[in-house]
Each structure stands twice: as C-alpha cells, then as structure tokens.
Request: fold
Amino acid sequence: NENALAIVFGIENYRNVSPVTFAKRDATFMKEYFEKTLGIPASNIYFKTDGNVGKADFDKVFSKRGWLDKRADKNTDIYIYYAGHGAPELNENKAYLIPYDGDPNYASQTGYALDVLYANLENLKARSVTVFLDACFSGANREDESLLAGARGIYVEVNPAFAGNITIFSASSGKEISSAWPEKRHGLFSYFLMKGMGGDGDANEDGQLTLDELGSYIQKNVSRQAGFLDREQTPQLQTLDRNKVLVNY
Reply:
C-alpha cells in the first residue's frame, strides 16, 4: 500500500491532567500494525507521542496545506489512530480531542474540535479516510476518574455528519468511558482493534477483513470484556460501505 498515509498519535502523559494509561504503548503497537498489516511505508507514517503531540501538531497535520493535504491525492488511503483524552464542551455541545498541552476544563480554547477534524479530512483529495479513535467524551479517564473540575457524568453525543469516503471506528458511545485493560497493558478498544486486524476479525475466514467484520468483532469482544471489568463500553462503526475490504491476508 505504497500510496497510503497514516497519522498515529498516542498521548499517555499530559502536562495538565491525569494520564491515559497505556496510550503510548497502544500507539507504538498500532504503528507496527499499520506497517506490517496494512502495508503502509514507515516513511508515510507521522508518529508522535506524549509531549510531541501539542496543539500545533494537530494543526500541522490536519489543516489546509498541512502534512496530509500536501501528500494526499485521489489514489491515497489515509489511516488515523488517536489514543488520548477527549473532552466535552457543554456550552457548545461539541467534542474535543485534548493535545498534550491542552486542558479538558478549557476544551474549546486548548483542544482540537472533532467536527473540525472531520471537516478537514472531508476536504482532502484522498480516496478514503479511516479513523480509529480510542478516546471518549465523558469527561473521565480510562480509570473513570473525572477530568473536569466539580463535574461528573456529563457527556456529549458524537454523531458526525461525514462524507462517503470517511469511516470512523470509535471506542465507546454516549456517557461510557474508554477503558484500559490492565492485564493486557492496552486500551480495551485498541487491544481488540489490533487482534481483529491481525486476522481474528475475519469471521468467514475468506482471507479478507471487511469494515463490517472488524466493527462487529470489536464491538462484541470489547463489550464482553468490559463486563468482566465491571464497565460498559460499546464501540461504534460509522461508514457508508460496510463491505469494504480493509485487509487482505
């Protein structure tokens, strides 16, 4: 997949807020899966973790005339993986990704709006865009500890309107948190995303992993394992082409 591009951001240790357990490890493993399973050249992967993922990096990568825009054309498949904090902004009813130097209590001032991300991706000339989002917008971290001063149990629903070439795999829905799995030392969503991409998600064993197969595998296994962790977590797949093949084995 020589013409593919990828962005991999994993923010575990934040400057202003509690960590996202195992996020750096998740991102490091996902970079390897992007290379070895999706066949993306290492030189085409923009990989950053922790303090190297500031607000400026989001702007650099996703903005007009940014890193992706300069490289993408009509034959490019783009893959984006993010593990880190998300946060709700209740006054705007919007969701934000929180960079290393961001503050969830000031999401609109210091975060990167999810709707801006999707709009920028839609404007790229790419053939397809696939987003893997191991973050939640419940105002809590992977251990269900509140990130927001004096607030509990608040959230925004993330229901983006997106173009036909964008596929979004998200770790959780509604007020659920995106959990860690301490035994495996990964985020719960990221662990089953990688297992599914590695071949376990190929339900009919035909050597082709479709978006629908991967989405069903992730949702079934994450929801089941979350129960054993006394959590509720329901990953979501948003796409207009569920039969599209993501991986050929």
Observations:
- The longest strand covers residues 77-83.
- The mean pLDDT is 90.
